Amino acid sequence: MPTRQQIVDAALAYEGTPFSHQGREKGRYIDCVGIPLLVAGELGVIDIEGQPMHGDMYKTYGPDPAGQLVLECCQRHLIQKSLQQLAPGDVLVMRVESLPCHAAIYIGERHGAPHIVHAYSGGINKGVVHELDYRWRRRIAAVFEFPGVED
C-alpha cells in the first residue's frame, strides 16, 4: 500500500497539466476527479470494497457541478475522517458554490502553510498547487484517505 509521501509525490506530478473535463492523462489533460483516481491507479490502491481504483472510473458526469456525486463516490470508495485528522495524501471534497463537487489532494505544509493540488477551470485552467487558504478551507465538505495508506 502507498505511503502518504508517495501519494503526495504522485499528485504533484499533475501540476501544470491542462484542465479538460473528464481528462485522465498526465501531462496532457486532467480534471479534479482525475487526479485522485489516477494517483490511486498508479499506486495500486484498492478501495474499501476490495476493488482497484483507476482513471477510467466515473467518466459519465457532466461539465457542470452535479449534486453530490463527488462526495458520494468518495464515500463509496475511500475512508472518511474528520478535518482535524487531515494528513498529507488525503482527498478533500470541496464545495463549488454550495455543492460538494470538487476534489483536491492535501499535500501538507510548504513554507509554513497548508497546500493542495487540484485541477480546475476557474481562471488558471490546469493542475495547480497552492495554499489551502481561508477561501479554499471554508469550501471543504469532507476529508477522506485512501484505504491502506501508510504514514
Describe the model.
With 151 residues, the chain is of the alpha+beta class. It has a single domain, classed as Alpha-Beta Complex (endopeptidase fold (from Nostoc punctiforme)). The protein is built from four helices and eight strands; from the N terminus they run αββααβββββαβ. Strands 3-8-4-5-6-7 form a six-stranded antiparallel beta sheet, covered by helices on one side. Helix 1 crosses helix 2. The longest helix is centred in the N-terminal third of the chain and has 10 residues. The mean pLDDT is 94.
Examine the secondary-structure arrangement and name the CATH architecture: Alpha-Beta Complex
Helix content: 10-25%
Lateral strand order in the biggest sheet:
3-8-4-5-6-7
Mean pLDDT: 94
By CATH's scheme, which homologous superfamily applies?
Answer: endopeptidase domain like (from Nostoc punctiforme)
Poorly predicted tracts of residues: none
| Pattern of helices and strands | HEEHHEEEEEHE
Shape: globular
Determine the N-to-C terminus distance. 10 Å
Q: Structural class of the helices, strands and pairings?
A: alpha+beta
What fraction of the residues are assigned to beta strands by DSSP?
25-35%
CATH hierarchy class name: Alpha Beta
Question: Strand tally, please?
Answer: 8
CATH topology: the name is endopeptidase fold (from Nostoc punctiforme)
Helical region count?
A: 4
Estimate nothing, just give the exact number of structural domains.
1
- Rg over C-alpha atoms, rounded to the nearest angstrom: 14 Å
